[in-house]
């Protein structure tokens, strides 16, 4: 190996360690990787920042804006609500919701498609008595398999198309992925319609007629004023008031000392009680016992009337600035104008102080704030509100605009009148120009971390090919596949990519694996297309963990899932994808 090849492998290994360890955020890791590549000379300075102007970055940025515009529309959610009376069984609910999410994910960012249907699914679960855990994971997985149908459905497809253009001089077109993707989609949806039975029963609080969402029990703090009728009463008597649905998991008194109480403990004035239970049950108990929920004693904005203040539940996303920090550190009321009323987390121990509990990805939080300003605050915090958008309020004509714009862009691309980059860029501009999104909302939709990741890894991926490092890795993989048939080698590339994706961002997986897959094809004197398709599908189909893809993370809190729940449904689905994708790939793209 040459010195440059050694350096390339060292940079990639360093990036993989940083991505897997999560010691620093993935976009900063990518910036460090690019800096190392430029500093060592494997990426020339004049090409180091070409990734920021690459067509892939433009397409992804435009798709994010279009997705935000479509997400703002309530049309699709209202259509699902109209069909709700016909979704009487969990199987039909899973099939309809999963199919809807998958179809929408084919033409917009899959996390955006899932975000549209998540509140609708939670409302359907509440009204029908179906466990939310039955619906949400199948929807998340459907959003991933829906993305493999078209070029713009997921970032891996766009990146693979770029690499094909470099190798063969022509990128994949908009619907080149469809013959394989549709087969996977149909089989995947068929499995999910029955496979939901593999999921565990709902944990934590059960949905009630009044409760909008089915999540694990919330942790909420409430102080005991002297006027409360439960001063000098026992913990047991207070819990009895809540019919056993609320537990007093801790008492804070004597200057902040925390005690784990038994049922016979007395409650004194000025105690702070740590309550755990269903959000609605805790709220009812606090009202009847005349307790003051911590955070509501002062309104977020003293100038607001009660009618201008609302309470919202939201999911903490992977890129949220809340992650790893406590409410005390963040000073949410002073800095953002919202009060934190509760946190829900699968498996959460209920005796911790609310202010000292670090936020985690997937937490569901209750926040109180201005009815008008809270949506923008949630976006700034990196939280997704669990609010049913299918209310019917607002301009119905404006609701249809983003769907019309997206449809026109797809038609122009399919008819080959306009390249994908120009069509999606134009659609994104129209979304803003026609006031579907404000300019501020469009900028917030851009997701800078993923754009920075792509822009930094593209030059490194080019260096993998230009230095010959891809050829060496391909040679090693070819040696492993020496006893396999050509079809078996495609399967090996697919499985290897799927194995990497849970630990790396799927875009990073593509940019590492695609040049190697091309090298394997050339070593065996085969067509690179089936190998690139295998990389695209393997990177998009990540069903085994909640951390490999944002869609999996998003449903973890609202669904009450634990880390080990994902493989129970995800492993058989992964096997189905492998078994079906390999023959489809080799049939559509001959070796």
From TrEMBL:
GO terms for cellular component: plasma membrane. One of its GO terms (molecular function) is monoatomic cation transmembrane transporter activity. Keywords: Membrane, Repeat, Transmembrane, Transmembrane helix, Transport. GO terms for biological process: potassium ion transport. Residues 206-291, 299-384 form the RCK C-terminal domain. Gene3D superfamilies: Regulator of K+ conductance, C-terminal domain. The chain crosses the membrane at residues 6-21, 28-45, 57-80, 135-160, 180-199, 400-418, 450-477, 489-518, 530-549, 569-589. It is a multi-pass membrane protein. Its main location: membrane. This is SLC13 family permease. It comes from Aquibium carbonis. The lineage of its organism: Bacteria, Pseudomonadati, Pseudomonadota, Alphaproteobacteria, Hyphomicrobiales.
